[in-house]
Amino acid sequence: MQLSIPSVLSALRALLKFPYWFLRKVIGILFGWTRFPPSQRPPSDSSPTYRQPPPEHSTTSQYSNYQTPSHSDQPSETQDLPPSPDRQQSQHGRTRSKDQDQLNKQNPYYTGLRERANQEGDEVDRCFQQSDEACERGESVRGQELREEGEEHEYARDALNAEASAWIFRENNLNSKPGEVNLHGLYVKEAISYSDKAIKEARQRGDSQIRLIVGKGLHSDGRISRIKPAMEKKMRQCSLLAEVDPRNAGVLIVQLG
C-alpha cells in the first residue's frame, strides 16, 4: 500500500508533538536500540567507579557462597576479600582481638565504601528533587534526564552498600561459634536479609536454634539499638520464638523448632 506525501507529513507533524524522551523510546523499539545499563556504560573521568551488584541489588555479592558455621563446618576463608589489617594471630593460629567487631567497623576499606554510598545517596536525592522541579516548570525532557541520572546514582549506592555489608559480615563471622551469626556493622535491612539466609541454612542442617548477635546499641548513634528491635519484630512476623540471652543482652536466641 502506497502512502501519499501529505499523509506522511501529517504523521511526522503528529509525532513531533510528543516529548523528546518519548520519541527516543519509540525509535529504540523500532530499531532495536537499547540503553546502556550503568554497569556497561563506557567509562568516563566523571563517572563513579563501583562493582556491579548481583541481580535485584541483593545484599550478597562476591561472598554470597559464605555459609554460616555449623557444628561440623567452619566458614571458608578462600574468598578474595581484603582482610582486616588490625586482625592479629593468636598462638593457636586463631584470630582474636579485644573488640574485633569495632575494629572491622572502623576499617578504612569498609568506611570508604559506606562513605561513597552515602555520597551516591545524596546525588540520588538531588537528581530526583531537581527532576520534580523541572517537570513542574514544564521541562519534561530535562526532568526525565535528571530522573535517569538519579537512577544511575541509586544503582551505584546499592552496589557500594552491598559490597560493604558483604565484607563486614564475612569479617565478623570468620570465627563465629557453631550456630551463631554476627550481625554487627550491618544496616537493618541488610541484617534482616543475612539473618533470613542464616535461618534457612540452620534449618537445612537440622539445628534447633540459632544465636543472632545483634548488639546492645552501645556504639550506635544515641546509644540506641536498631538491629535488635528490628530482628525481634521480624521473628514475631515469622512466628519464631526469639529470647534475649540471659547472659548477654546483645544476643537473641531464636528457636527453630
TrEMBL record:
Ranges where the Smr domain occurs: 181-257
Residue ranges with Basic and acidic residues bias: 134-147
Compositionally skewed regions (Polar residues) per UniProt: 57-92
Residue ranges of the region described as Disordered: 39-110, 131-151
The protein's name in its UniProt record: Smr domain-containing protein
Organism (species): Rhizopogon vinicolor AM-OR11-026
